[in-house]
Design goal:
Layout: H1 4-14, E1 21-27, H2 28-37, E2 47-54, H3 56-59, H4 62-72, E3 77-82, H5 95-98, E4 102-105, H6 108-117, E5 122-129, H7 131-143, E6 149-156, H8 158-167, E7 175-178, H9 180-186, H10 193-198, E8 202-204, H11 209-225, E9 230-232, H12 244-253, E10 254-261, E11 265-274, H13 283-286, H14 302-306, H15 338-345
Parallel strand pairs: 1-2, 1-7, 3-4, 3-5, 5-6, 7-8, 8-9
Antiparallel strand pairs: 6-11, 10-11
Helix pairs in contact: 1-11, 2-15, 7-12
């Protein structure tokens, strides 16, 4: 295997001096590696690596979060969700600051345990994320839920939102680094739509700096040769067909739905909701939850950051009013949020 220094030299040799190239890393964990390893500082000046909408906390709709806050204030309900979701700000506050009855969990299995220990309460699992976290939620449905456990689904589909980005000519993406964790579920073949339909190279990469550099080399080599294909430099984890078992249980319990992405808006067929036959455990049905119109946070540009149209440092709130301790927008909350990562790594 080549050293990092050798990989960097190859990257420099592949980037033509007269052309600007823009590659999007969709995954928040990739952005974490890129920022903390200082990759951007050693790349050619005309090679731009932009973060995308790969932070599940950042794109969770404000409507779902406000509904979760309201549920936690219902005396008959215990809301359970992942730690980052507790701090995400909305115009109605956050679950942690403005909710009453809630618990942090690290695994869907804990939701089952809490429901069994509190049979007199309705336990609502506010389940968020991309295909990676949808699979464990589907797994507990496969096991069978207690009668008092309900799912508030805010799951989203990564390939769909990436297609939306491709169609936005103001972003002008030349290539994608596909998310490694999601790819382990959906498979490397799931990304073939980008080279085949749009002529854009895409490569699945892992989370070590060297593996990401190898992914960049694969994309740049394709661009140099006028090619576009779906590559995979993370073959030790990601198979072409993905995880068939995980895909099967996701498709068994969830159906594709039109949903809202925070900072992006309404995106048809980009999310997952429980199938009608499992409505008995659907929190939206059980509690008659209604969509709530999203409102932008004054001064916050999380929407543009998620779309790859701006860097966190371009926001007037960044490192002034907005910090990990006092987040004004969702991108500052999670360790996978671009603003949080840039706050911890930038010297600006």
């Amino acid at each position: 295997m080549k050293s990092s220094e050798q990989l960097i030299k190859i990257i420099h040799s592949l980037v033509p001096a007269e052309k600007k190239i823009k590659i999007m890393n969709v995954c928040g964990s990739h952005e974490h590696t890129i920022a903390f390893s200082g990759i951007r500082s050693i790349l050619p000046a005309n090679l731009e690596i932009i973060p995308g909408p790969g932070c599940p906390v950042c794109v969770c709709s404000e409507s779902d979060i406000i509904n979760a806050i309201n549920l936690s204030n219902n005396p008959d309900v215990i809301l359970v969700t992942y730690g980052d979701m507790l701090r995400v700000p909305t115009r109605q506050g956050s679950i942690r600051a403005d909710g009453t009855s809630y618990k942090m969990i690290t695994s869907p299995m804990e939701a089952i345990s809490i429901a069994k220990k509190n049979p007199e309460k309705s336990v609502v699992f506010f389940s968020i994320g991309f295909e990676t976290t949808t699979a464990p939620t589907a797994a507990i449905l496969q096991m069978g839920l207690p009668d008092n456990l309900f799912i508030l689904s805010s799951h989203k589909l990564t390939p769909v939102i990436m297609e939306l980005l491709v169609k936005d000519t103001t972003i002008a993406i030349d290539g994608f680094i596909a998310p490694g964790h999601v790819s382990a579920i959906v498979g490397a073949n799931a990304w073939k739509v980008f080279p085949e339909k749009y002529g854009i190279p895409i490569v699945v990469a892992g989370f070590e700096a060297e593996n990401l550099l190898m992914g960049l080399i694969e994309i740049l080599s394709q661009l140099r040769d006028g090619l576009a294909r779906a590559g995979n430099v993370y073959k030790q984890v990601v198979r072409p067909e993905g995880n068939a078992h995980a895909q099967g249980i996701i498709n068994k319990f969830f159906k594709v739905a039109d949903i809202n992405w925070r900072g992006i808006g309404h995106v048809p067929e980009s999310g997952l909701q429980l199938r009608d036959e499992y409505a008995r455990h659907n929190a939206n049905v059980e509690f008659n939850l209604q969509p709530i119109k999203e409102e932008k946070i004054p001064g916050c540009i999380c929407g543009n950051i998620i779309l790859g149209k701006a860097y966190p440092s371009a926001c007037g709130l960044f490192k002034t009013q907005c910090s990990p301790r006092t987040p004004q927008g969702p991108c500052m909350v999670s360790m996978e949020g671009a603003c949080n990562i840039w706050y911890r790594t930038s010297s600006e």
